[in-house]
Specification:
With 249 residues, the protein is of the alpha/beta class. It has nine helices and seven strands, in the order βαβαβαβαβααβαααβ. The structure holds nicotinamide-adenine-dinucleotide.
Length: 249
């Protein structure tokens, strides 16, 4: 029960890694705001863990601000922010267009920036807080079919390091996790979008892991819960690979 009495807000909490994180944080004692752009999914996960479902579209700064206000009204000040919402459209870079760049950057990079901007001032004022952002090994070593997503995730890591430096004096830590291939609807959309090529992409990622298997959402959630807890009190500005050894940096 490392998070007893803490309030956590998870973005994209309605599916995959986000849902597993909501369950894990709740199991460790936190009161969890399950936020998502899809309110039905948020409601389903929140119902399981006696959490608070909340609409939050990370692409909108207004939505981020309103959601943070609503959560703090209901549950109290946010101690833990998990920037998890993510999205990709698999395509080779030469086949992408400006609209795809904007869609992918808006969720994966700008979304992390806008939700952090809504939460961090309160954390700094209270002189405590934990920010954990879900990046990706794609942001460190690249990934076929995910050029813009990889750029966004590299951006999340750079952003995290700077927030860690700026917020340290206020007792706030900021870290990232960098998952490898995790069995969620996001990853499994590659075979759906690209057929056999997508299947080969996923198998290629598995082949790059030292452990030679897909990861599970709860394995990423365990690392997030650790970084959100007092056990990680001397860790900030890090990107921790949760990728079966896909990258060792
Ligand atoms: N699955 C993997 O292999 C993998 C690998 C590395 C990193 N990640 C990252 O993990 C995180 C979670 O991904 P997942 O695999 O669980 O995907 P998922 O598709 O299962 O879940 C993503 C969730 O984010 C929500 N979401 C999408 N756009 C949103 C928006 N604009 N505002 C708020 N919520 C939004 C979706 O509704 C969904 O509930 C993402 O940041 C993803 O980039 C996943």
């Amino acid at each position: 029960m490392r998070l007893e009495g803490r309030v956590a807000l998870v973005t994209g909490g309605g599916s995959g890694i986000g849902a597993a994180t909501c369950r894990r944080l709740a199991a460790e004692g936190a009161r969890v705001a399950v936020t998502d752009v899809d309110p039905d999914r948020a409601r389903e996960v929140a119902a399981e863990i006696d959490g608070l479902p909340q609409l939050l579209d990370v692409r909108s700064t207004a939505s981020a601000r309103e959601a943070v206000e609503a959560v703090e009204r209901e549950l109290g000040p946010i101690d833990v922010l998990v920037n998890n919402a993510g999205y990709d459209e698999f395509a080779f870079f030469v086949n992408t267009d400006e609209a795809l760049w904007d869609r992918v950057l808006a969720v994966n990079l700008r979304g992390v920036i806008s939700v952090t901007h809504a939460v961090l001032p309160g954390m700094q004022e209270r002189r405590r807080g934990r920010i954990v952002s879900v990046a990706s090994e794609a942001g460190r070593v690249g990934s076929h079919g995910s050029s813009i997503y990889s750029a966004a995730k590299a951006g999340v890591i750079g952003f995290t390091k700077t927030v860690a430096r700026e917020a340290a004096r206020y007792g706030v830590t900021a870290n990232a996790v960098a998952p490898g291939p995790i069995e969620t609807p996001l990853l499994m959309s590659a075979p759906q979008a690209l057929g056999e090529l997508g299947e080969r992409l996923v198998q290629g990622m598995v082949g790059q892991t030292a452990l030679r298997r897909l990861g599970r959402p709860d394995e990423v959630a365990a690392a997030i819960a650790f970084l959100a807890s007092d056990d990680a009190s001397y860790i900030t500005g890090q990107a921790i690979g949760v990728s079966g050894g896909l990258a060792m940096i």
